[in-house]
Amino acid sequence: MIKIIIERRIMPGLEEEYEQAAREAMRVSLGARGFVGGESLVERGRNDHRLMITKWRDMRAWKEWYSSEARTMAMQRILPLLTEEESIRIYEASY
């Protein structure tokens, strides 16, 4: 299993619009093969800083989702609300 950490900075005043778009993107990802779960967090005291943590069965499942038309369409609503490009990091368990 892998975890994907996505950091985003939202334009001031567009936080509610972002929340709606992010909820829709998460809803769409629920149907993706290999999606295990996820959560959306806001940094305390910094309403413009968001963190998405998603769990995927494996790297192949994440790559399929990342390049899917469904994600591309969901991101069309999110990208205009960001002040900078999102940061994506991939983590796996260490043993």
Automatic annotation (TrEMBL):
Name of the protein in its database record: DUF1330 domain-containing protein
Residues making up the signal peptide according to the UniProt record: none
One matching Pfam family: ABM
InterPro entries for this protein: ABM_dom (IPR007138), Dimeric_a/b-barrel (IPR011008)
Domain ABM per the UniProt entry, residue ranges: 1-72
Organism: Vreelandella zhuhanensis
